[in-house]
Specification:
It is a single chain. This protein is of the alpha+beta class and about 600 residues long. It has three domains: about 5-135 and about 355-365, 2-Layer Sandwich (Nucleotidyltransferase, domain 5), CATH 3.30.420; about 135-170 and about 180-355, Nucleotidyltransferase, domain 5; about 390-585, Carbamoyltransferase, C-terminal domain (DHBP synthase, Alpha-Beta Complex). Helix content is about 35%, strand content about 20%. The chain has 23 helices and 24 strands. The strands form seven sheets. Strands 15-24-23-16-17-22-18-21 form an eight-stranded mixed beta sheet, with helices on both faces. It has a five-stranded mixed beta sheet with strand order 10-9-7-13-14, sandwiched between helices. Strand 9 and strand 10 form a beta hairpin. Helix 17 packs across helix 22. The protein is globular and about 70 Å long.
Length: about 600
């Protein structure tokens, strides 16, 4: 719950709505409790808090207001903490860790359920909801396995750290059963998914955390973790020397039996393990360029994880791999897992960070009321949408000239504009869940000229080393990208990079990184017909089934959610024109 605070709603085992709190609060990386997102999900489903049967939480944090403290001084401290945050306008940040609660009730020889304020919970509108908790890494694993469409698979979860229960037969726990568990801080699990069940057989504690290693490098380079790890991945393509490889191996490595990750230099005696790891990395990288640091960090991360995955594939006989957890936001790592010998197919849950825990918790909360089937995730268009009437009211207030465009003219207008060198903001349908813009909150441009990257970086206040990604007609992907079929499903959500075939690299230079790779979105007409039609119209004009697709946001701001935010981007000249639902908006005539 500390980062990527999100909420999701499931009914009868089906994911109905999901949204990250940051999109509504407009605070990048919003942490705390996702009350706005929870109420937005209920609104999208046309129900209220009173209709909720199960309030299911990924096992890390919970709203502090629902727990009475067992000692008067801790109660007083929490009241002061609550007042301070309320005065600062951040009431959603008032949370309590389950580990702290359990420790307190054990010291006081109490039962966790006795401290829960059911009266406050009911007064806040949850008239009949049962409270349940989901093991952090079990939730990650469930999201990867259940939505992969695989009947049998190797399931990997890798992140910085998450609180997990000693037992995870069901993955969900009541207030009483959580109290009986020993919570463990884990950074990795490996499981087998078969017969709609997860069997965990490998795990890593925080000492050998791959996510903490990469996050520490991110911070040592002057970036913000866990938001800027993608910048390190982008910079790594320029790193060529191996001087830092051996020192970094002493911070992150693979155990001799290849079952878990280890660190020679970081262990329990270090006290604050996270700070100790950061200090070691800072000393190690002194005098090295950010490119070389990034390159070595990426190689060592891949070396450790690929070594484990190759062993686990052989050990289990599996050929399909499903993944979740923040480390699998690393699209280059995902590519190399996909390319391992024996791997037939991969899937990465699109909201791979802790944002994805909400989807798993919501679905797991329905188990017992229905049987959750393994499904192949169709799309992540699970957020808020806005009608033409709502949009037109915003446009009328904004004062920009606009006109209505529908049908084939809508797609053709957009395609012509992009082909002529325009930068187009596209806002349509339900907002995407997860970190990627997939055609509904997207900025489009031509891929033909690499100079467009400089223009987009300037307009969106982004870093020059971050590559832009392509949206591609699905049927054209195998001819453009090598080994495409192994990650075809993952590519629908921009979660893996591919080597671009040599004959295409010069045709679409704006979306090819310095290492010859790209992170495509494969667009199917049945999944997003209005987006597909724009790309198809662009192909008819230019012969290219590819367009630059970057997220509709300025650097360090969340992706736009409401029409007002899209219009603001036009006002600030981040884009040249805006296609918002069925309206074309531009200061200049298209």
């Amino acid at each position: 719950m500390e980062h990527d605070a999100s909420a999701a709603l499931a009914a009868d085992g089906r994911l109905v709505a999901a949204v990250s709190e940051e999109r509504l609060s407009r605070k990048k990386g919003q942490w705390g409790y996702p009350w706005r997102a929870a109420d937005a999900c209920l609104k999208m489903a046309g129900i209220s808090r009173a209709d909720v049967d199960v309030f299911c939480v990924a096992l890390n944090k919970f709203p502090a207001c629902y727990f009475r403290k067992p000692s008067w001084w801790r109660e007083a401290g929490e009241k002061w903490n609550r007042l301070r945050r309320q005065l600062a306008g951040r009431p959603e940040e008032i949370t309590v860790t389950m580990s702290d609660l359990i420790r307190e009730v054990r010291e006081g020889k109490m039962i966790l359920a006795d401290l829960f304020d059911w009266e406050r919970f009911r007064a806040d509108g949850f008239k009949r909801a049962e409270v349940r908790f989901v093991d952090h890494h079990y939730a990650h694993a469930h999201s990867a396995a259940c939505f992969s469409g695989f009947d049998r698979a190797l399931v990997l979860t890798v992140d910085c750290v998450g609180a997990c229960c000693a037992q995870d037969e069901t993955g969900t726990h009541t207030l009483e059963s959580v109290f009986l568990q020993n919570l463990m801080p884990l950074s990795h699990t490996t499981s087998v998914w078969s017969g709609r069940q997860l069997r965990r057989f490998c795990m890593t504690d925080i000492n050998g955390s791959p996510g903490s290693f990469y996050g520490s490098v991110t911070e040592a380079l002057g970036f913000i973790s866990p938001r800027h790890e993608g910048k390190v991945t982008g910079l790594a393509a320029w790193g060529k020397t191996t001087a830092l490889d051996e020192p970094f191996r002493r911070v992150l490595g693979l155990s001799r039996d290849k079952t878990h990750f280890v660190s020679e230099q970081i262990h329990e005696r270090c006290g604050n393990i996270s700070e100790a790891r950061k200090a070691v990395i800072r000393r190690t990288m002194q005098g090295q360029s950010r490119e070389e640091v990034s390159g070595s960090a990426q190689r060592i991360l891949e070396e450790a994880i690929l070594g484990h995955v190759a062993w686990a594939l052989k050990e289990t006989g599996m050929s399909k791999v499903a993944m979740a957890g923040g480390v699998f936001g690393n699209v280059k790592l995902n590519q190399h897992i996909m390319e391992l010998p024996g791997v037939e197919s991969i899937f990465v849950f699109p909201a791979m960070s802790d944002a994805g825990l909400a989807a798993a918790a919501a679905q797991l909360g329905t188990m017992g009321q229905c049987e959750v089937e393994t499904v192949k995730l169709a799309d992540v268009y699970l957020g808020p949408s806005f009608s033409n009437e709502e949009v037109e009211r915003v446009l009328a207030q904004a004062g920009f000239p606009y006109e209505k465009v529908t049908g084939a003219e809508r797609a053709q207008r957009a395609a012509r504009f992009i082909a002529d060198g325009g930068v187009l903001g596209l806002f349509q349908g339900r907002m995407e869940y997860g970190p990627r813009a997939l055609g509904n909150r997207t900025i489009l441009a031509s891929p033909c000229d690499a100079k467009i990257n400089d223009d987009l970086n300037r307009r969106l206040s982004r870093s020059e080393f971050m590559p832009f990604a392509p949206s591609v007609l699905a049927e054209a992907c195998p001819g453009i990208f090598e080994n495409f079929e192994r990650g075809a499903h993952a590519a629908e959500f921009m979660t893996v990079t591919y080597k671009v075939r040599r004959e295409w690299q010069s045709r679409i230079p704006a979306v090819v990184h310095v290492d010859g790779t790209a992170r495509p979105q494969a667009v199917h007409r049945e999944k997003n017909p209005r987006y597909y039609d724009i790309l198809k119209a662009y192909e008819k004009l230019t012969g290219l089934p590819v367009a630059v697709n970057t997220s509709f946001n300025v650097h360090e701001e969340p992706i736009v959610c409401r029409p007002e935010e899209a219009v603001q981007a036009l006002r600030e000249e981040r884009i040249d024109a805006l296609l918002i639902e069925d309206f074309w908006v531009s200061p200049k005539k298209a």
